[in-house]
């Protein structure tokens, strides 16, 4: 380490150091502060955007609660599709659309809510599969069910697969799917009733063939 005998030598050394390195240090400080302010600006912008989306969602939801008109919520979904609130609003719009037998609107809204890998997205995928079944779009329903990620929904996935297969007349495959659902929900009377329906449908099919 360099030693200095006098105060003058120390001052001269400091002057040399700043002459050689001062520009770099100042530039680094400016960049560092710029990055800090940029990060703070980014955080403030994100927080502000979330607050605005939250307020708009509450306003749209209040309008729907008063009038049951889905237009405000639909507009919110279109304007805020990149926020988590859009999925919630889309689910509400879809539910109302199903009540009005407007399955195409329900399908479009649930497609928005089904994006991503959250539990809300999985619920939307299950509901979207049901809409596909309602429209006899069986292949789309199966494809949608195969994208559900959460193991907690395994019973619903298998039950819906059973519904699709039953509607297609694939009774053996439907029975297998329902039995898988029963593994998750042993004693579920609805699923047992669906298994009984398969047995009845088979009996009817045999009788019809015999008459021919």
Automatic annotation (TrEMBL):
InterPro entries xrefs: SecYEG/CpoB_TPR, TPR-like_helical_dom_sf, YfgM
Keyword Plastid included in the entry's annotation: no
Matches recorded under Pfam families: TPR_21
Domain Ancillary SecYEG translocon subunit/Cell division coordinator CpoB TPR: 15-199
Transmembrane segments annotated in the record for this chain: 21-42
Topology class, membrane: Single-pass type II membrane protein
Compartment(s) where it occurs, according to its Swiss-Prot or TrEMBL record: Cell membrane
Domain of life (superkingdom): Bacteria
Main location (coarse class): membrane
Record key words, sorted: Cell membrane, Chaperone, Membrane, Transmembrane, Transmembrane helix
Homology family: Belongs to the YfgM family.
Name by which UniProt lists this protein: Ancillary SecYEG translocon subunit
Source organism of this protein record: Glaciecola siphonariae
């Amino acid at each position: 380490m360099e030693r200095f005998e006098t105060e003058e030598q120390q001052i001269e050394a400091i002057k040399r150091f700043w002459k050689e390195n001062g520009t770099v240090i100042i530039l680094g400080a400016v960049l560092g502060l710029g990055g800090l302010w940029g990060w703070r600006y980014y955080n403030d912008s994100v927080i502000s955007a979330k607050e605005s989306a939250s307020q708009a969602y509450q306003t749209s939801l209040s309008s729907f609660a008063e009038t049951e008109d889905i237009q405000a919520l639909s507009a919110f979904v279109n304007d805020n599709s990149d926020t988590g609130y859009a999925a919630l609003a889309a689910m509400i719009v879809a539910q109302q659309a199903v009540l009005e037998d407007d399955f195409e609107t329900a399908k479009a809204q649930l497609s928005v809510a089904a994006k991503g890998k959250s539990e809300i997205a999985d619920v939307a995928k299950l509901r979207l599969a049901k809409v596909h079944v309602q429209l006899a779009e069986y292949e789309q329903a199966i494809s949608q069910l195969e994208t559900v990620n959460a193991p907690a929904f395994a019973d619903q996935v298998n039950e819906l697969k059973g519904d699709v297969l039953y509607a297609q007349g694939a009774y053996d495959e439907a029975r297998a799917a329902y039995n898988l659902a029963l593994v998750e929900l042993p004693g579920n009377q609805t699923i047992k009733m669906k298994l009984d329906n398969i047995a009845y449908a088979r009996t009817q099919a045999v009788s019809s063939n015999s008459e021919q």
